[in-house]
Design goal:
The protein is an alpha/beta fold. It is built from 9 helices and 17 strands. Strands 3, 4, 5, 8, 9, 16 and 17 form a 7-stranded mixed β-sheet that branches. It has a 6-stranded parallel β-sheet with strand order 12-11-10-13-14-15, with helices on both faces. Strands 1-2 form a two-stranded antiparallel sheet. 46% of the residues are buried.
Length: 344
């Protein structure tokens, strides 16, 4: 099959072996797959991610950075067949997405970061039949590919245990931060303050449901909010992933504040325990989405509760993947470019 692969820190388009499904595995033809910052992380620091997994525990221990693998974990595709002895949970011909985890055949792999479970930048994938979610027939492919990234933000949002008495601050308005804002809006939290350096991302944050969007270089995000009775934020979501963020948040957070760390930082972080203890802070580390978050994301996109249309930028074929990944960190980059691996 044709695929865009990562090999030794490069993106290449090449022929890869077609995956063969085993028991409990569905063979799926990919229709659409979003480009995530995780792929960019692996290009620049893939060996570090693998080494950290091997040292500290993580899902990337089996990856060989010098050997090609097919990335892409924000996907939608058509079920073609199943391996022998499978329960065949979704009929062939239906479109599906899933939590990007494979647990069949004794495996525990992240789809798109595995040599055995190629991701959505290839024509064919293997998915765990226990994780399959059938996509509504009237939901466009590119919208369905946004289910997974939105679900991550929804997971982060609920990890903060928000309620109607909270004033929330979302630091960083990439895809995950935007998903957090959307989740908080669904839960009726107000006010929601969004903070990002880039004007375009602040505009996106307002579209997703933030009440206030600020440049933190110009306005203190922890200061009183005149439009909301001079309240101050007490529930803080970090979606940046840069070292030093936790320390700065701890110093600025209010007494009895809650902090959700969702940014993907691969460097050591330091903080003053003294400050966190004196303020009685609660620090929660968020991870990936769970099936309940995927189900909510799919419902919200399908019924229009959350509009992901502004997220979607260019639709590209396999030959455009390398350039799209290189450009995705710029302030004017779309929230998501979408790969159709059926196109070269």
């Amino acid at each position: 099959m044709k695929a865009a692969v990562i090999e030794n820190g490069q993106v290449l388009v090449r022929d890869m072996p077609e995956p063969v499904p085993g028991k409990g595995q569905a063979l799926v033809r990919t229709h659409s797959c979003g480009l995530c910052a995780s792929e960019a992380h692996f290009l620049h620091a893939g060996q570090n991610v693998i080494d950290l997994s091997r040292r500290l525990g993580g899902p990337y221990t089996a990856l060989d950075f010098g050997r090609a693998f097919v990335p892409g974990h924000e996907y939608v595709g058509e079920v073609l067949d199943y391996g022998p002895g499978s329960r065949r949970t979704v009929k062939p011909g239906a479109r599906v997405t899933s939590v990007p985890i494979m647990r069949q055949q004794g495996a525990h792999a992240v789809i798109g970061f595995s040599h055995d479970c190629p991701g959505g930048f290839g024509e064919l994938m293997l998915l765990d039949e226990d994780m399959l979610m059938e996509v509504p027939s009237d939901l466009p492919d590119d919208f369905a590919a946004m289910i997974e990234p939105l679900a991550v933000g929804l997971e982060h949002a609920r990890r903060g245990r928000p309620d109607h008495g909270d004033a929330a601050l979302v630091l960083g308005c990439g895809a995950i931060g935007l998903g957090v804002i959307a989740g908080l809006k669904l839960m009726g939290v107000a006010p929601i303050v969004a903070a990002d350096f880039h004007a375009g991302r602040r505009e996106q944050a307002l579209k997703m449901g933030a009440h206030i969007a600020i440049d933190p270089r110009e306005t203190d995000p922890y200061g009183p909010l005149p439009d909301f009775g001079n309240r101050r934020v007490n529930l803080i979501y970090e979606n940046v992933g840069q070292p030093g963020m936790l320390s700065r948040i701890v110093e600025a957070a209010p007494f009895d504040g809650r902090i959700v760390m969702g940014g993907y930082c691969m460097e050591p972080e330091s903080m003053y325990i003294f400050a966190a203890q004196n303020k009685r802070l609660n620090i929660q580390f968020a991870g990936g989405e769970e099936p309940q978050d995927m189900a909510l994301a799919m419902r919200a996109i399908a019924d229009g509760s959350i509009d992901v249309a502004p997220w979607i930028g260019a639709r590209i074929g396999l030959s455009g993947v390398a350039a799209a990944i290189a450009a995705m960190s710029g302030p004017e980059a779309p929230v998501r470019s979408v790969v159709d691996p059926r196109r070269l």
